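Consider the tokenized backbone below.
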């Protein structure tokens, strides 16, 4: 069975982020940053929505190393299944490749060699801009390959919204489409891809696919990292607003297990609590609407408790300073009718016992 498209992002070191519309190169590429993709797989009758996480592990002039983590809960068991794949892609691949690796369930690291790893190469982007089309090969689950002409859809860029360290930003993207008919099955597949309008690092912001009449999609919904700037933002929010939304804490699908990509954010929270030793914090858990009210209430309770347990056990924060509360699906900040909205509703919030200052 073919799997949903999955995408991994690479970006460059450029200008700092600013509110509103931003240049496609405005996300600094650094070790430790995590890209969160909300996924609706084509086999959604087997697996419901899940999140896929890409964490940048190492960067050199020759190559980039990433950890690709994802988990899902099969509907038959409801028990989370998690995988982490270690990937390396070269600068030459991101510059010249005509193949685009879009997704997999294999630990074979050599399978993607010679392709741009979940992005469009500089060559592909140049031809989309100048000619409006380019011949490519898409490679994905089970070594199935679809080759054909990728054609630009709109003559101008289109806006795609994502959260960058919790702030909504709009990135210009080139929308392109590939339609192919399999010679093996005679079924038609259509791929709509939105690439960041960046010749050097055209990562995929959004991908929608119809395979044999079955739709699937995956959206980049968040990019998170921690540094002195993000640490200052967290401290300011907790000082002036007494509340902060935290998106860098991740859980296995349908589970309260805190996953490895959460470590930088937990480090940041623990450092702030050590610095502000008098603070007492409520850790709130919030979910999307999938599964119903009772299920999500229990899940949010367990996730908030798991964050507390981690802060106490790993970072030695005094348990008396931490209170937990779960709100389930009752406090959405966006619609639950879209992949991106549901992903943004799944969050942790930190609340300090104080009065907001203005």
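A designed sequence for it:
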């Amino acid at each position: 069975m073919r799997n949903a498209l999955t995408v991994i992002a690479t970006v460059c070191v450029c200008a700092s982020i600013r509110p509103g519309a931003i240049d496609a190169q405005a996300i600094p590429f650094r070790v430790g940053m995590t890209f969160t993709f909300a996924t609706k797989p084509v086999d959604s009758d087997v697996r419901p929505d899940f999140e896929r996480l890409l964490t940048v592990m190492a960067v050199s002039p020759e190559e980039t190393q990433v950890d690709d983590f994802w988990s899902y809960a099969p509907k038959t068991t409801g028990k989370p299944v998690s995988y982490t794949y270690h990937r390396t892609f070269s600068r030459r691949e991101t510059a010249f490749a005509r193949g685009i690796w879009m997704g997999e369930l294999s630990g074979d690291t050599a399978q993607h060699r010679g392709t741009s790893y979940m992005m469009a190469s500089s060559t592909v982007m140049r031809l989309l801009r100048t000619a409006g089309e380019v011949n490519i090969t898409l490679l994905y689950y089970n070594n199935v390959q679809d080759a054909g002409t990728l054609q630009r859809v709109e003559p101008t860029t289109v806006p795609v919204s994502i959260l960058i360290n919790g702030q909504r930003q709009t990135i210009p993207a080139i929308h392109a489409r590939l339609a192919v008919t399999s010679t093996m099955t005679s079924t038609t597949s259509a791929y709509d891809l939105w690439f960041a309008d960046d010749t050097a690092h055209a990562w995929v912001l959004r991908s929608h696919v119809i395979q044999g009449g079955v739709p699937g999609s995956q959206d980049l919904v968040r990019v998170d990292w921690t540094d002195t700037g993000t640490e200052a933002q967290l401290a300011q929010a907790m000082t002036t607003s007494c509340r902060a939304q935290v998106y860098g804490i991740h859980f296995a699908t349908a589970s309260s297990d805190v996953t490895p990509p959460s470590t930088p954010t937990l480090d940041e929270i623990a450092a702030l609590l050590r610095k502000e030793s008098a603070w007492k914090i409520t850790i709130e858990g919030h979910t999307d609407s999938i599964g119903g009210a009772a299920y999500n209430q229990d899940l949010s309770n367990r996730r908030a408790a798991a964050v507390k347990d981690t802060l106490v056990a790993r970072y030695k924060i005094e348990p008396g300073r931490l209170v937990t509360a779960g709100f389930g699906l009752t406090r959405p900040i966006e619609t639950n009718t879209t992949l991106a909205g549901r992903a943004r509703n799944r969050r942790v919030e930190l609340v300090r016992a104080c009065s907001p200052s203005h």
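The first strand starts at residue 20 and ends at 21.
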